[in-house]
From TrEMBL:
GO molecular-function terms, A-Z: carbonate dehydratase activity; zinc ion binding
Basic residues bias spans: 276-289
PROSITE patterns with a match to the protein in the record: ALPHA_CA_2 (PS51144)
InterPro entries xrefs: CA_dom, CA_dom_sf, Carbonic_anhydrase_a-class
GO-annotated biological processes: one-carbon metabolic process
Stretches for region Disordered: 266-296
Organism superkingdom: Eukaryota
Official protein name in the record: Carbonic anhydrase-like protein 2
The species this protein was found in: Ascaris suum (Pig roundworm)
Record domain Alpha-carbonic anhydrase: where: 1-244
Amino acid sequence: MCSKGKMQSPINIDPSTLLYDPNLSPVHVDKSTVASEIINIGQMPRVRIINSARWPSVNVSGGPLNPYRYRMQRMDIHFPRGALFGSEHSIDSKKFPMEIQMIAFNSDLYRNFSSAVASPHGIAALSLLVQIGKKTNEELLKMTIATSSIRFKRKRVELLDLKPWKMLPHKADYVTYEGSMTSPGCHETVTWIIINHPIFITREDLDSWSQLQQTITEEAEPRYIGPNFRTLQDPHGRIVRTNIRHRFKENDAECKKRLSDTWYRSNPNRTEAYPKRKMIHRRRHHSKPPIKDELL
């Protein structure tokens, strides 16, 4: 499936081909504090959510997931080493320093993750793209501090007060497409939701992740986990939908803008084009400038 599938992930999100879908509602993530543990599995660090009677589950619903509820199972973390491009997905062919993937299974249709991952409508994946900033997201900081305890494979440490919902930006913009898991066996049962606002990590904290190693103990020539992203896959004509609607006057043809005229606002490689476009749009519509932490 990994080499022959036609719905593999990750993919490049091409803003010029996005399809606006007015029926896409906001995505909801339960505001629950969970017990979890972060584990070095060799290929990546993974946060496992402990779903038990003692601790509340985190349900994900809304948007392209309707009418089902999905129970958060884990978070997979992708990052670089010695560079600033470690995300799996890219936007307009540009990568980001880090990507956190919240993986949930359809608890309305299936009893557990193992059943869901191989079945239709089985998995939801919320992708958070991470950009360099002056302050690390509070929940991401908890995970970053824990990396010092999981330097080697099979090491794990508890995180008993993690709040996954606090990692999500307040705004509800996103893009979505049907794809696959990005690790073997690459099951094509995943509804991907890529949030349209980054969260932030300092450069120093990002470097902490790059110290994680694939081996059980120290070796003479260390084998580091990063970079641990899968290569981009062919979209094979898949539709990528969005709930991002651009506002303009219906009779103003000059300012009707396709989604290709927007971009991941945190991407430093695209800022040169920003001032001119911003000033033209403000002059014609007297609107406020775009929020700088928008991604599309």
